[in-house]
Design brief:
The chain has helices at about 10-25, 25-55, 65-70. It is an all-alpha fold and about 70 residues long. The chain has one domain (about 10-70). The model has no long low-confidence stretch (mean pLDDT about 90).
């Protein structure tokens, strides 16, 4: 297991203390959750970019409402 040391300025420490009180979590857990949230955001962005790129390659065909009802 890795141990990471993080230096926080006074404002950052106040924010972290507020979050620990608000969420009833310890500092380590909050930092881990934040890390995973950021990683998840990156994965979401990659998925969306992939979808957009695939959509540009594949031309979507739209039909009219009349065609849909036939």
């Amino acid at each position: 297991m890795a141990v990471v040391s993080v230096r926080l300025n006074d404002e950052e420490e106040k924010i972290l203390e507020y979050l620990t009180d608000y969420f009833h979590e310890d500092k380590s857990t909050l930092l881990k959750k934040s890390m995973f949230e950021l990683y998840e955001d990156i994965q979401d962005i990659r998925f969306i970019e992939s979808y957009i790129n695939d959509s540009k390659k594949k031309r979507k065909k739209f039909i009219t409402s009349a065609e849909l009802l036939d």
